[in-house]
Give the backbone structure.
Amino acid sequence: MLENENNHKRKSLGRGLGALLGDDDFEEEIISSEKKATNDILLDINLIKPSCFQPRTEFNQEALNVLAQSIKEKGILQPLLVRHTENGYELIAGERRWRAAQIAGLKKVPVIEKQLEDKEVLEVALVENIVRENLSAIEEAEALQRLINEFSHTQEALSQTIGKSRSYIANTLRLLNLPLNVQNMIKEGKLTAGQVRPIIGLENAEQLAEQIIKKGLSARQVEDLVAKLKTEKQPEKKKEKRNDDVIDIEKSLNKSLGLRIKITPSKQGGGKVVLQYASPAELDMIIDILEQKKAMQPTTFVSSGAPMATAPTTNEKFSIKVID
């Protein structure tokens, strides 16, 4: 069952590259070590140079030594993929095997030559590493960003090229918003993409990353930690400063009118007087009181949701806004 799942995973990646390489089965030429391609040639290892489009930047020396020992015993089962340049040959895929072959002391290595454009070289190298799971999340993000910046790829096009969803690509690219120190922690294998995703964009991301490593927090625990920190950091509502005179006026009006009144002065000299009510009956009472006051001293009365009633002209205005 596991073998079938791995085969399905591989066939879901890099579907657009089969045609690019002139082979309907991409795995036959790039991935499978079980079959040796028939059009490979032996090439002087010193004529081959690593590619500047190689997305992988970290090579584990111990793993290279193990591979070198295997090459000494069995040789290189899978040819390197190269392209011809003015200065010799440039690796398209297989840098790990090339490095291990040097350690093993090989003079010549089997290669397949393909003439590819720069963007195609990056695409092939990216897909090969993703399929082999050789890239860190940051290396993958950097390669995807290069395809976007240097070769005008869209996320949709990348999705089709490497066989990953757009959401996967978007989430991977977001990792590049992390501080460089945190990115290096991911490259070194100290953190996973899942662990750091919740801290992307936070000012204290680096401190949180160190805390994640120290406590060995899972991705879910990091999410809970960040949610807790955000709740604790919510700014407290600033208490409004009101002078004693305003408070005394409130108390006087509350007592004389029998209403709950709050006065909020503004810096411009005006302000708001808010009449609070607890039931429709209290609202009716408030309107009755204001209507009586209006009758005693004509003003322009504006009631929310009702037509404006015009009284004799005056320089004063009184308005009511009903707020539930």
Q: What stands out?
A: Residues 244-320 form one domain. The longest strand covers residues 80-85. The CA atoms of residues 64 and 292 lie 93 Å apart. The chain has three domains: 2-175, 178-200+208-222, 244-320.
